């Protein structure tokens, strides 16, 4: 595994500059090209999500809320708890500022990409409506761009695995249940008792995930809609308690994030640009802006209005990154846990919660992480099914779930470094075809936006 990890590490520096150019550069272009109009309709987006503009006769499989819940379930997860800790561990508190900036830009990317998912959605061989990058690439640009869509799907067969989630959940479980490694020796006959318990965790997660993902999109959406609000509220309440108990440290923590963001003398690899690139990588991992995953869910929404779905999708990065990632970062910083952790991953967040919540915070975090992990595992499989279905057909596409379940056990025993490098590289490769298509087709969204907001203005007058 060390050889594979070294190979991936050598490729990532080349891919990350492409990601920086397309996500930040391309995203800023979309912000100016849209004249910031989508941001002005934030309140309207909330109304659409709440169902105020729903029409049950519109084509599609799921409601706006279900589509957003499923997309957020895939993004609000270990990336917000463990990913933030990894970012701070590797680049210091200042990385969070660049995660914020990427998320704000990412809101506009989500607006454009998910609007395109409705404009160019298509039917598969079973007559079911489908949306996503592969469809707006082939229908929007034309069949000549099919290799670009296929490239996205091939990268997605790796990028849309739940390996990071499983890896970090396993680390959390082992740390909380047996911080002194005493429980791992209960395996008795195992030559490597720690590996033995990791395998048990991986196999258990595989079985639980199987019960949901083989039920299809509607079952995934129902489960995600039930889990996501609960886990976000529980996590918010836990963080709120920590922040109230340490209220005097909140502003200094936020100030440290801003000042360290412009630390030109930082010692991290890559210097100042290293902080920015790390922030972009972790933000894309957290909210998946520019990745092309969210359009797959939002493309299934019951609506005839592309702009409506774009506005709903825009809420995703705000919930995922501006709210949840910030809460995690503040707790880690004000608790001083970022100065104590000796390794990557969720350990830093566990230290922060244990110190801040009467010594039992790590147990509470494990319960929250369990909900985050399961919701992410349930929803991510759908992306991979769509990628394989596009490359082959819907009947074969369903077999992705077997491959997906098998990789869960692998991820439980793999090193965190290998998992991060594998996913980061796959994400960077997926960003390339998706963002090229979104930038090329942006005028189509602007035309729809002009018509929609004109109609909305007439309805209100």
From TrEMBL:
Family: Belongs to the alanine or glycine:cation symporter (AGCS) (TC 2.A.25) family.
GO function term, MF aspect, one: amino acid:sodium symporter activity
Membrane association type: Multi-pass membrane protein
Organism whose genome encodes this protein: Poritiphilus flavus
Protein name as it appears in the record: Amino acid carrier protein
One Pfam family hit: Na_Ala_symp
Gene Ontology cellular component annotations, sorted alphabetically: plasma membrane
Gene3D superfamilies per record: Amino acid/polyamine transporter I
Signal peptide: none
TM ranges: 12-33, 67-89, 95-120, 148-169, 195-217, 224-245, 257-280, 311-338, 358-380, 401-420, 426-447
InterPro entries (alphabetical): Na/Ala_symport (IPR001463)
Subcellular location: Cell membrane
Keywords: Cell membrane, Membrane, Symport, Transmembrane, Transmembrane helix, Transport
